[in-house]
Records
---
Amino acid sequence: MPADALRRLSAILPADRLLWQPAHLAAYQSDALTAFQSPPLAVAIPETADEVIALVRACHAGRLPFVARGSGTSLSGGSLPVKGGIVIALNRLNRILRLDPAERIAVVEPGVINLAVTAAAAPHGLHYAPDPSSQSICTIGGNVAFNSGGAHCLKYGMTSNHVLGLRAVLATGEVVEFGGGRREQIGPDWCGLFTGHEGLFGIALEITLQLLPRAECFHTVLAGYRTLEQAGDAVSAIVASGLLPGAIEIMDALALEAAKAAVHADYPPHCEAVLIVELEGPREAVAADRLRLDALLAASQPVEARPARNPAERLAIWKGRKSAFSAVGRLSPDFIVQDGVVPRRRLGEALRRIGKFSREAGLRCANVFHAGDGNLHPLILYNGRNPGELGRAEALAGRILRLCVDMGGSITGEHGIGVEKRDYLPAMFSSDEIDCLRRIRAAFDPLGIANPGKMFPGGEAPALHAHGPHPLERAGVISRE
Amino acid sequence: MKTVVTPTSTAELIEAVRSAPRVLAFGAGTKPRLSQVDDNVLGISTVGLSSLLEYEPDEYTFTALAGTPLRDLTAVLAEKRQYLPFDPPLAAAGATLGGTVAAGLSGPGRLRYGGVRDFILGIRFVDGSGRDLRLGGKVVKNAAGFDLPKFLVGSLGRLGVITELTFKVFPRPASTLTLRLPVSDPERAVTLFEALGSGRWEVEAADLPPSADAVYVRLAGPEGTLPLIARELLAHGSGDTLEPSVATTFWANLQAQAWSAPGNSLHKIALRPREAPALLQQVAAMGGQVHLSSAGCLAWVALPAGSDAGRLGLQALTLRGSGPLFSGRAAEPEIARAIKFALDPVDRFPGFA
């Protein structure tokens, strides 16, 4: 590490919170997109907002690139270190500063774990709605940077729909406050702009989140179908009926096989697809809506429809669903997850074409997806030890992304562009539009030191190789989705 | 503005933006203060850009030109039993979709699922350099690129001219029921707002109209279920249920802001429920009126002409009247200037003064 850079940082942090020896850096050299690895120059571990501000200002003064990192669960390589730059690890800024049940808000530091917010809110009958599958480990700071989603986005929106206020240090060193504890705002929506910035604007220091009352009642049904088309038709029928379920999810045969093997999930036999639908709300409304849902599902000719009869059965359904991704990892040494979006009515067509692409590439592809909002999650299985397979997997991923754009959708529903999809940004946006995004980035970060090399095409290519799951994933702590 | 042009196509609108050194777009003019600017600014009316370009009921999305009147949109959505849950205000007066986004206005229904910022998905706009840009997307979930659609909510046409918008819509609940729950004083209204906001009932709206002694609560849900929920809410007081036709008229009048006398200035206030009692007192002392909306998260305040909304000590936007556009806000951070320059390097749009 260059002596002057180290000197600047060591004036801010004690030696035990400034890592620079290769053995200590190894844990930070990639995130959940393990195909990309790049060791940082050093890792700074601040414990207070003031230390984060001082670090960013030192980076600005020394033109030193920095990458903010929470738990490293990004699936788009969003927290991949930048060559010649430092990682600012925010895990120790993990305090819930204030929780006001009457106003239904929580003010948290960026290193607070997503699920910890709901845990703190639960005694008051409240919860934090965005629920990415990594919610037991991912941080709110990372959720804000990448506008994370989850299984309930159609009804409740993404992270940006729940961020009411932000205090942040920008890449210029300026400290700003956007919004506050109010649900309405006056003037342009700065919180909306900052959420989803992918680490390119600066670092959030305090985040004010909106909490929602926990639904009183749930009705969760798992239905198995002989074909994916039938499952897709059932989704169309539900949507056309005017019901607004909290979640509508589909898993295909390969994903079912994996979930069975991993968590002993039990599914109806001989099914090519399983549909999970969940209604939620006041008990009177759920009682009325479930009659309509059950009739719609019966008419959709499932092999079997199983309503959860109690909270334990409901949790079992969700456990199978949320473990599907790490479970698929057991079928293959390596995999890539995409998260493109297509218009919901074209889901069936998209899946057929993905199947065709996958056969042509000679690679297996499992599908688990948020059917309610058209957000696909094709998992491309490959073995990085076989020469050329990673390249074929990436080419297949690229075909799928272009398919999503051609169908009028998006290259990412919730994972962000990161380093992984930056070359596909021009598939969605014109050169004028990308130039506009670049100008906005430059306004926040004129030196280009905040997470450079992400989101925008071009830039320096990181080391692409690697094999095997993330260590935390191997331990079953996190899952990709 | 002295001169106003009314383009009838997006191409004409882009041409109009490029044609003058200073321009400001506006919709139907239902929030007149937002387009009160110097004479040397060319006005661009979007009312000639009215069309629902795409509507996919099965996708819960539509795309419309900025000048499309809200009332036309809500009528088309209603045919498919869908709606914009945030009750965009001033629809009956002719307010446009683009004007609603630029002003950043939501009505009583924002309580349940969020406001205009929570339903916008994509935007097409012309920046200060005259470039035609589309950001966001046309599907209900999208995380590609910075969220310019959200940022331009509340931007008052000062950062770009909105030409086209894509929105998420929801299926309309089969039935609604409005309750009148009397409150003896503002403190009790706040307590009730807080209880409704965190309760199991998922109420759609909870408003305290000007000079009223009751909170009006709107329930929405499947046929036949609402009387059961209403019974519980009515159990502890002397409240009652409004006849459906009375309820419809009541909400329509609130939405139209029929209570505010035309000569008064009109302001939107971003509120915390607990600030409401002090606000009510202060406004009364100034001779004005307050409509508390969305369980106390939002206030519409009418003040006698010439009053200073800054005296309220809260963040306010002037929609009608002669006061400053914004009051009660902290000084703009440095980044606001940098972003203004990024989107409008030639200062084609007026500032937020």
Note: The radius of gyration of chain B is 20 Å.
---
Amino acid sequence: MNPHDEHKEGIGGMANPRRYGIERVAYWLMRLTGLGLLGYFIAHIYETSNILRGRVGWEEFLDLTQTTEGHIFMTLVIGMCVFHTVNGIRIMLGHGGIGVGKPARPDYPYIPASQNSRHKIGIYSAIVLAAIAMMYGMAVMFGE
Amino acid sequence: MAQAYEIDEKKTPTSKTITLRIARFNPEHDSDTTFMDFSVNVEKWTTVLEAILDVKQHFDHSVAVRYSCRQATCGSCGMVINGKPRLACFTKVSELNSDTVTVEPMHNFPIIRDLAVRFDRLFNTHHKVKPYLIRDDSEITSNTTKELLQSPEELEQFIQFSNCIKCGLCNSACPTMATDSSFVGPQALAQAYRYVADSRDKGKDTRLKIIDESHGIWRCHFAGSCSQVCPKGVDPAMGIQFLRGYMLGFRS
């Protein structure tokens, strides 16, 4: 089929976080962290299944998380987890129609009430909290 | 491949020359989009549509563009201007702060030619959500003199959403529509809310059932891009979240 038949923007357009402000960045991070956490979940199942190889096999695999690369990976997991949770709470409230403003006659320049400061604060809080949690995690893991 | 065109037009002291890049594509004989560059003189008040019409008048009359009212009322001239969906008649070249203005057809709409796109899907999804008052009785059809009274507070609940001009910018900006051709889209969902919130309407359950499908309201992830590009302040993202609030039991 000719791509112009649909002229969809595609994954590149969907994942482009640059054009529509912090809300689109949050949307992109939410998807990215969701996929990352799904990957971690699958890896975690694989990791814990190593217990079937006995104590030696289990400890061998666990040693992987004690390397520098393992610590960086775990730091990323902490960041993804915190951002996804905090931003997820914001989105869940929004999905219920909570905190998205009230309908009213719009006045030019038509600033959308649903993109209000409460949501922006929620997004920035999620990013800051994720950064703090990552720094704390790094301090604990690399400070050993 | 970009082609450049320029004419030696007399400039006024306040005018400025910009490069207008127009996406050209004719599905009948082109395999891909090409861009043609035109040097256009613009004033502080020149809109992108006027610049395109200038190109049609002086350089290439075959540039396909849909327009009508030139005052952001008809919703015909939606296009992607410097990467964002906007109305060409409602966007001044000067507000773009760029010497190069690139115009492309709206994303997520099939291209007819150049900047003109097909609206069939938007109108189909709009029609799908039953954009009219639904009543249990025959008050509207059998007795046209009967008034359905409404307080100003009740009017406030939906008046914002009735500003929709069906320009399609929201559907073009939507990240879900970028990958899902079957998604009902922010335009139709906002219109579903417009009638659900109308105190005269009795079709709430019918409409909620229509949008409660696999490619319906649940595909919206509240990115809010639809509301950011709306030229009439409709705020589709708000309407969609309110609709979901009804469905999740947060609103009654």
Note: Chain B touches chain A through 54 residues (CB under 8 Å).
---
Amino acid sequence: MNLKSSLPYIIGGLIVAVVGALFIKMPAPLISIKAEPLFSIGPLTVTNSLFSSWIVTVVIFLFFFMATRKLEYMPGGLQNFVEMLVEGLYNLTEGVSGSQWVSKFFLVPATIFIFVVVSNLFGVFIGVPLSAVGVCESPHHGEAAAAEGGHEADTGHETEAATTERAPLGCEPGQVLVPFFRAPSADLNFTFALAFITQAMAWTFGIMALGLGGFMGKFFIFDKLRSAKGGGDIAMGLIDVFVGLLELLSEFVKIVAFSFRLFGNIFAGEVMLLVITFLVPLLIVTPLIGFEVFVGIIQAFVFYILSVAFYKVAITGHGDHDEAH
Amino acid sequence: MDLAAATFLGKLIGAGLAMGLGAIGPGIGIGIAAMGALQSMARNPDMEGTIVTYMFIGIAFSEALAIFGLVVSLILLFVV
């Protein structure tokens, strides 16, 4: 398509964007960094992210049930797609981990990958467009459940003052709109749980492969210090001890990094879509939705491939780095 | 300027600085990772799949730093 024939589209798009920016006033975006409570079952508070993750679970279950209901020797359609997905993930895992551990490494990260992909796409296609569909709740209710005892009056008063200006979309003043849907991965609890499961499995695999002593030996390295003769050896041994302790610390930093990476990417994507929609209501946000789909898939893939890579690191003992390669 | 206005101003400046300064290093790092991956793909196109996989691992590590800055600025804006 040359410039001359595409010019009407460009001009039309610009006109739509300018008219949208001038004449359609969007309400200020509702941005909450934590998932908001929708309702409660007994003592359990169900947030909108948890509710959405149930929907995602049901969707995944139905999809795989439909795909594998009538298994055929020569797959076609849905079964073909699912087999391609699972086989691709399996081969990728085998490429990183080697054929000995692949059946153990494959299961949980691949499950998390599918779950996180569907969660992220749910956020882009349902969570953000329907972010104005929800119930009006007075902030007292939510805060009273979260606050403890004497702080109740203070926090309730404060949040009321803070939220009066964000009460658009037909809610009473002093009430706040709680959307029904929010991407599950835009909740730090969700991503932290996935990260903790991943890292706990890495420790389990490390103990399975190296034994408890061998696994701990990666973090508490005293052998060089014990056999030291002279000042230089002692200094090298101390450095080894320090490196081991850093390694131990990084095992816990990995959990934080995992959870913040997924949460930050998805939550920032949602905030960006909402803010761009607020600034320029029409058309400009469309390519960014495509970008967010890309980011969602890439982040799920990164979560998957990093967990497999960390499992590989965990089963590699201290000192046998050379034979591993 | 009263204390509330000063606090609000500090939050805004801090959030901007956290994201802006925090994105410099990861930006450079991701650029170097992509450069290395492209060069090695040009030299050895057969290894493309493996290289892309490990490139994403490297990018994820340096991107995590920018995400930390982002989370800090979001917390400054919406929570504190």
Note: Residues 127 and 189 of chain A are 17 Å apart (CA to CA).
